[in-house]
Structure formats: C-alpha cells, structure tokens
Amino acid sequence: MAEFEPRIIAFACNWCTYAAADIAGTSRIHYPANVRIVRVMCSGMVDPIYVLKAFEMGADGVLVAGCHEIDCHYLNGPLKCDAMFEKLRKVVNTLGLEGERLRREMISTSESPIFAQVIEEMVEQIKKLGPSPLRERVKV
Amino acid sequence: MNLEDIIKETKTYYCLECGKCTSLCPVARHNSNFSPRLMLERALMGFGNELIHDRELFSCLTCYACSDLCPADVDYPVFTQKVRNLAAVEGEHGDCAHSGTLFSLMRLMSRPDIRQRRLEWLDGCRTSEKSEVLYFVGCAPYFQPIFEDIEVNPVNIARNSIKILNALGIEPMVLPDERCCGHDLLWTGDVEAFKKLAQFNAQMIKESGAKKIVFSCPEGYRTFKLDYPRYVELDCELMHITELLAQGLKSNELGLKKIAKQVTYQDPCRLGRHLGIYEPPREIIKAIPGIKLVEMEHQGEGSICCGTSAWTNCGSYSKEIRVERLLEAKATGAEVLVTACPKCQIHFKCAMVDKGAEKGSNVRMEVMDIVTLVANALGGKSRE
Predict the structure, then answer these.
(1) For residues B319, B183, B300 and B56, what is the CA-based torsion angle, rounded to 10 degrees?
(2) CA distance A119 to chain B (A)
(3) Which of A25, A37, A121, B111 lies 20 to 30 Å from B78, alpha-carbon distance?
(4) Is 3.40.50 the CATH classification of the domain at B254-378?
(5) CB contact under 8 A, B141 and A56
(6) CATH topology match: B3-89 vs B254-378
C-alpha cells in the first residue's frame, strides 16, 4: 500500500501568507505538495465552519495563517482570528482530534521560508498520526 | 415519502382553515411572511414545490403552540419536520445560526472513528463506572466554549445535575463517547445523520447496561422518548431530572437551604407542550424555602417559546420574541427567570447582549437553569 499522504487545507490571508506562499514558489523553496491553499481576504474572516467543513470533507489537517498583528490591513483581523481559533481549538479537542492537526500561524510576506517550514512540519507530524478520525469511512 | 404521504400521515386534510394556528403562533405575530395556516393550505392546494422552496419553512419553532389548540388536531410540527426532510433532499436548509458550526459538529459526531474527550469537566463529580442510572450529558461540552462569552456555562448544568443525583443517593454513569442526540438534525431534515447518531447512542447504552437514563436537557429527553423508538430499539426507563427530583423530594429530606428570591419559570417547549411536564419543575421550585414563584402572563400550556429552535432562522423576529418574553418575565417582579433548558438560557442571554435589539438594554435579568437553582439550595460547592 502506498504511504499515507495527508491532505492539508491552508486558509491563507491575501496580504501576507498567500503572498508568502507565492514568493516561496517563485524563489523555488521546496515544500510538500500535500497542502491546498484557500485564499481569504483576512485571517479574521475565517469562520469556525470553514475549518470544520474542511475536516468534514476529509482534510487531515488545517492551517489558518495570516498577517502579524501589526501588519493587518483591516486593523484587528489577527485578533479576531485568535479569538475564533481559541474557541475552535477547544471544540475540536472535545471531538477528540489531535492538537497537531489544527494550527494557527502568523506569516508575513517576507517569511516565505517559514511558510515552507510550517507545511513541512505539519506534513511530518500528521503522517505519524495517520488519517483524521473525522474522515468518513470509505466503503471498499 | 412524498408530500401526499405526509398530508395523510399528519392528517393535514382535516384543516378547517380557521387560522387558530396563525393567531397563536409566536413567529407569525412578528413575521408577517410566516403563517402555519398558509403553509398547510399550500400543501393541500398543490403548491408543494413552492412550499418546499420557501425559506419561511424553516422559521417554525415547532413549539406546538398551534397544534395544542387545533380544533382539527393537525400535527403541524410533525408536518413541518417531514416537509423539511423533503426540502433537505432538494438541498434546501434554513439560515443556520453560527454559520452552521453546530450542525457541522453534529454531523462530525456521526463519524464512526472519533474518540471524544468530552468528560474533561467532570473533575470532582461523583460518578461511577457501573450503575443502573445513566446521566445523558448532551451537547454541554461543545456549547461551553462557544457560549461562555455570553455568560452561559452549560457544563455547570451537567455538574450540578450530577450533584443533585448524588444528593438523591445516585452515582450515575456517564458515557465517555456519547454522541449528540440528533434533535436538531432531525428537525432540520437531515434524517440520515440523525439515524447514525441514534444507532451509536442506542448501541453504547445497551453495552453500558443502564436501566434508567436521566436527562437535564429537554431536547435530548424528547428525542429519546418520542423519536428514537421509530428508528432504534432501546429498553430503558427515561426521565427528566425534574421528574426524578420531584419524586425524590416526596420521600427524601434533602435539607434545601433558604434562598430568599422571587422567581418565575419559563416552560421549555420540549418539556412542556411536547411531553406535558409542567408540574414537577414548579413543585421543585416551591420546595426551596424562601422562594416565591410568580407566574408570567403566558405560562404552562400557553407558554411562549424562547424564539429559535434547532439553530435555524434566528433573526430579528426571534429577537423580538425573546425581548417580549423577557419583558413579560420582568413584569412579574421576579429577580430570576428559571428555565429547564440550556438553549432557552443561551437564547435569552444572547438577546440581552445583542446591540441590535431595540429594547435590549432594559431587559436584563438573571437567567438560571432549574438544576443550578436546586444545586445552590443544596449548599456546598455549586457553580453557576
């Protein structure tokens, strides 16, 4: 059987993390291809349902990443995101999901190596954990 | 099942078009686009398709205010439930409050491989591994992080329930991997996910060997009592904690301490009109020394719902219903509004902090679960 390849969804803010991912590409920084990036206008607009829906549809890990607090284009997006994430983390913990599967990062445009590193770490950790328990069992 | 079967099953064709339902409906009083009578008429006159795609289909609170006094005995809430099922198949769903987060959680709980960590709040509660009595916790561990910032602490209701059971000499079991009862999924038309949840719960309860299940949430109680028998086999005695406590008060001397307060009681629709439990909660409140129970204008069978059911179509009309109900509670002169449903508490407290509610600022009052009230009277450690 082929090695388990985790599916990771990254919600990346348009102004910082998405740009960082873009620059990581143009600078040819290698990182695993397990991540699917969803561009959002601000990390503050990420609703818990986005993340839960990703898990519902079979994601093994979710990354929510955006600007640092002082960089936000909308003043308090990261703070809003932090407050949301705190609640979400508790709920997901109650569901029995491992903490490593859900990650919150602040990655600015100039930090493309950090973006690549975060993805690498997540893939490595989730490979050890195996498929998400929230995945629907596929009938063979 | 198609619309014709639903009409036959719920005896909708007996409708006399008298409009009593609409005049009693708490939603129709505020939302002129919603009328139970009109919904039924559309089904009977062959406008089923229009009915299924009407967003107001999900506005009904399924509170049974209409059916209770229907002269033709039409079961409108069950009719709604089944039509919503048809609508869900067509991809329709109401506007989910909290952008559907809670529904997502319910569906995730129907996945077979999850191992929940839902009992982290249990510290200090006396429970046992093997007991004849099972306490069904419900969704409290999930509601806690979501609603703690509006000062609702659902896990404290669970803690206090266990404290009361202990005082009655019961050390209950709690299931470590209990699933959602599925109430909200059933009432919004997702019967498939509901069935899965029901099967998981029935299986786990059978394996635990429990003889009696105690609930502190009226929705869970209703679902187990009236809906589960249609889908799963479960041979247990079911009881709401207020029933158990009312019984216990007759034979036990619990040594309830004095609480000098004037309170009023909100009948949750699931406990009241759905299951006919009106007296036990009132007996309990009256048994606490020093407490004076004053009734609201609408009480018992005529009680008014807290404004939203199954987290769906919560909007300005729901807020208006809540504010009106809170003003009614305030008018009694009571200091505390006691309810027996965690969701009533969530909805009322939400209305109080809502900046959009016109009269929101002057409806502040203490809202408390009956379980917490009794736990306070028991003395010792209790958490509000």
Answers:
(1) 40
(2) 25
(3) B111
(4) yes
(5) no
(6) no
